[in-house]
Write a structure and sequence with these properties.
By secondary structure, the protein is mainly alpha-helical. It has helices spanning 2-18, 21-33, 36-65, 69-98, 105-134. α2 (21-33) runs antiparallel to α3. The longest helix is centred in the middle third of the chain and has 30 residues, at 36-65.
Length: 145
């Protein structure tokens, strides 16, 4: 019974927390093509999705309910890239937009990095989802085991 509850919490956590991170891959390119005011709004929305949904689930629910060893490594890479690499850049981009400097060299450089990281996050997250469903080496196959 305990295991079943953990699996259910893990799946619900993945849907509620990790699922919305895929929206960032849509909102980011939209922000890249928008005027400064819209870009600022979209970037604030992306930050809200990250801090209110993705972060609580990524740091609490998912580790507590268990993942595969390979998925843990990929997960650690995502966490590092998100909090050490991406998050400070996005916050700086928001600050530049708020200051009216959404077209300067610094903003353009930060935006290029964000465009590169978005697909990487998507691929790593997809790999984790595939590993969680496939469960290689478990002998269980595609099922709750």
């Amino acid at each position: 019974m305990y295991f079943t509850i953990l699996v259910i919490l893990h799946i619900v956590g993945a849907i509620m927390g990790i699922g919305p991170s895929f929206a960032l891959g849509v909102l980011g390119p939209m922000a890249g093509k928008a005027d400064d005011a819209t870009k600022l709004t979209l970037m604030r929305a992306m930050t809200a999705i990250d801090s209110r949904l993705v972060t609580p689930v990524a740091l609490v629910t998912q580790p507590v309910t268990g993942v595969l060893l390979i998925a843990i490594v990929l997960y650690a890479i995502i966490i590092y890239m998100s909090y050490i690499v991406s998050r400070p850049r996005v916050r700086r981009m928001i600050s530049l937009l708020e200051a009216g400097d959404g077209h300067g060299e610094e903003f353009t450089r930060l935006e290029a990095t964000s465009k590169m990281l978005g697909p990487i996050f998507g691929l790593l997250t997809t790999a984790i989802v595939i590993l969680m469903i496939w469960k290689p080496g478990s002998g269980c196959g595609v099922q709750i085991c």
